[in-house]
Amino acid sequence: MWFTSIFKRKTSSKPVLKTQAAAIKSPVRQPQVGKPASASQPAAILPAKSATQNLIQYDEQLIPQLKSDHATVLVLYSNVANMVNADQWGSVPTALREVRIALYGHLLTEGVKLYSYMRRNLAEDQTLFEVYRSFKKEMDEIGRAAFAFFDKYQDSSSMTTAEARQSFKTEFEGIGKVLVDRISREETMLYPLYLPS
């Protein structure tokens, strides 16, 4: 049996001895935090001195970076719109992937740096916390819809017919309107809430 090879003893089906049962039932003493351990106690695990270093800190460059991301996404969106207007449908999927990559990077930065920081720092003000939560929830929904659109039109074979192209145009314009509205509201309502603690 593999137990034998690991523990170098044979397993048995004998009942547990009284001394073994007493050892199992006796409570384990927990060492006091910060006190040196005795020879009979394992060393105590102390909390990390730098626990606050793991929290997302305020970054004065974050909002300018996020606004720059917005500008990049809008320029890339305009590039796709120009290709559609010029009937350059073969180039659309590649340009759309660039929009997707830029939007994904922006949402990742926003999620990790902005929303994490705001969740912690606005927790005590219920009104501002609700503003943050509604923006985050809405952005999650917008992101899902946008990435579903990108997935749907990831190759040129999805835009070969006049009907498919019209459908693309309609959906693309809808996403553009939502993005412009969202960017405007983020920059005027959400980003001003990002303040040093």
Summarize the structure.
The protein has a domain at 58-193: Up-down Bundle (Four Helix Bundle (Hemerythrin (Met), subunit A)).
Structure description:
The chain has 197 residues and is mainly α. The chain has a domain at 58-193: Four Helix Bundle (Hemerythrin (Met), subunit A) (Up-down Bundle). It has 6 helices and no strands. The chain has helices at 2-7, 18-25, 62-85, 92-121, 126-152, 162-190. α3 (62-85) packs antiparallel against α4 (92-121) and α3 packs antiparallel against α6 (162-190). The longest helix is centred in the middle third of the chain and has 30 residues, at 92-121. It is elongated.
What characteristics describe this protein?
single chain, 197 residues, mainly alpha, Four Helix Bundle (Hemerythrin (Met), subunit A), 63% helix, 0% strand, elongated
Return the CATH topology of one domain.
Four Helix Bundle (Hemerythrin (Met), subunit A)
CATH superfamily of one domain: nmb1532 protein domain like
Q: SSE order, as H and E?
A: HHHHHH
Low-pLDDT runs: 1-35
- Note the beta-strand portion: under 5%
CATH architecture of one domain: Up-down Bundle
Q: Using the alpha-carbon principal axes, give the shape.
A: elongated
State the helicity in percent bands: 55-70%
Q: Gap between N and C termini, in Å?
A: 61 Å
Query: If helices are DSSP runs of H or I spanning 4 or more residues, what is the number of helices?
Result: 6
Average pLDDT for all residues: 83
> Largest sheet, if any?
none
Number of strands: 0
What's the gyration radius in Å? 29 Å
**Name of the CATH class of one domain:** Mainly Alpha
Given the helix and strand composition, which structural class is it? mainly alpha
InterPro entries: Hemerythrin-like, Rsd/AlgQ_sf
Organism: Undibacterium arcticum
Protein name: Hemerythrin domain-containing protein
